[in-house]
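Progress note, project year one: complex with 9MJ.
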Amino acid sequence: MLTPKEIETSIIQLRIEINLHNYHYYVLDAPQVPDAEYDRLMKRLQVLELQVPELITLDSPTQRVGTKPLAGFDEITHAVAMLSLDNAFSDDEMFAFDARVTKGLEIEEVTYCAEPKLDGLAVSLRYEDGRLVHAATRGDGRVGEDITQNVRTISSVPLRLMGDDFPPVLEVRGEVYMPRAGFDALNKRQRDHDEKPFANPRNAAAGSLRQLDPEITATRPLALYCYGVGEVEKQLLPASHYGILARLKEWGLRISPETEEVRGVTGCLEYYRKIDDKRDALPYEIDGVVFKVNSIRQQQALGFVSRAPRWAIAHKFPAQEEMTRLIAIDIQVGRTGALTPVARLEPVFVGGVTVTNATLHNEDEVRRKDVRGGDMVVVRRAGDVIPEVVSVVLAQRPDGAGAFVMPTDCPVCGSEVRRVEGEAVSRCSGGLYCSAQRKEAIKHFASRRAMDIEGLGDKIVEQLVEIGWLNSVADLYDRSALPHNKLAGMDRMGDKSADNLIAAIDKSKQTTLARFLFSLGIREVGQATAQSLANHFGKLSAIMDADEEALLAVADVGPVVVANLRAFFHESHNREVIESLQRLGVQWPDVVAKRDLPQPLAGQTFVLTGSMESMTRDEAKAKLQALGAKVTGSISKKTSYLVVGADPGSKRDKAEKFGVPILDEAALEALLLGHSVAN
Ligand code: 9MJ
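Model obtained:
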């Protein structure tokens, strides 16, 4: 049994220890103990506090979640107004901003503090004697809402500051946001509970902070980055904005690790492009970058206009969400017969490009979002992602807009549309009878990663199929079915292009088993699976005749792939096309079946990025796969190695973040060589 004095000492020590772990975890991004150990310390503190409840203070790490839901939010008047920011949407507007600043200060070049602009909710946190006493929204800049109860539940917000040299009153300004991973998990939870998912992380963060019940806020994955101060005893703070942020960090407040000092407008524009390149790899959403004159003395000299400082600007990225009118919902039929509803839109400039179509994914998605022809919709295009319809502006729905119905017959060939129970996708049952599926199958067959027929573009395939001159992939190699003069007569073709195309078709006859298998377009048989099958069996006939058990023995092949392979090769039409292709000269060297050879890289996952000098990425991929490695397109914590060539892009940052080891081209060559010698 501990004496009351010993309990008190333990409580104090545990609080210090837990706060220190929070600091390492949230602020330094370098956890010092595993989660289980942290949980153990918290549990112990809870137990001790229950023994002596009068020792429980509001700043104890056990006291984040208050118990009582509020009836409404009180108002809080900010001691120092919360500013908004002017925006710049182009380099020219940045030059103009910098010109105003340098002119106002009568100097040549200014140093700026550069920060990413988080897309969340601005908050002000008030610390008195190092304890969090209030948290407020920005509101109109003068008066905000008291959201103290909710902000206290955010684990990265310290309830007590670190150290002992903080000002007695410190108001910190920052952005509460929801990291992408937390947002995805929250939306999955919402859907699983049949609740409405949030349209984007910003709305989710705002909705979570506006909860009257802090127990709900506590379940929401919110985080905070600080970017400035309000009321404070200024003489205690450094003379530069960057210096102030560094001090905030020492006191346990989270600062964006992307924060930097940059020189002049050139430095600003370089920073803007650097962060834009990294944008998709960041674990949270940003809508631009912010530049602030670094010297506090210079900030004071410049002052304010209305509610925005003259010394700061937000350089915004092109908006990723815009509103536009949905003209109609079209149905596209894909290679595997999948019917995809596609929104045809009035052109809208979003995410840096003009968008006229956006995917609606499938029937259930259209229902869930209740998207109808004529609706005003919010369209989103982030990074290289396909544009999508996020939500409908119901208030602007035109009268008589009818709900979407999936057609029961294929809009292209009229065959019956079927939807397998438990699957989200509806499919045309027409197979290669359906000209849409035929077109897509032939495009896929000819594509770079498949048979690589240069010059056989989508448009020419579509024309040839529509006229009826190209009915199967075998026709491509059959000069009696598709002679030179027919090809030369197509739109934008001619004698020379027809010659080139025929030469490219002939060249493609020499291929590899893996490419050929991939080019057949069997459902779920992607490049990696095709390569595994080729490596494993060595011969096409062995794959075609393999039974279920033999197929399941292949790495990465599961029951779904087996069912698709068996169904494909069971179809006599498919066997006939393969025979014709081989008769017409398509061939590949038999691969030595790797079934029994060692696979030194089995179980390892590689990601390739950037361009290499000694081999193409596809060659590197094939070599790695031949040694048993899996090669995928995106980095995760499970990736074994990232191989980087020149201009690696954002994957490198992501790999560093996840602690994935990075190999350069020389290291990759050494690895491949080492293993081929060993073999
Ligand atoms: C955001 N949203 O990340 C400011 N902000 O500064 C940053 N917002 C800001 N600074 C003054 N990094 C007013 C708003």
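Residues 4-63 form a domain with the Helix Hairpins fold (CATH 1.10.287.610).
The chain has five domains: 4-63, 87-316, 321-396, 407-589, 598-672.
No further modelling is planned for this target in the current period.
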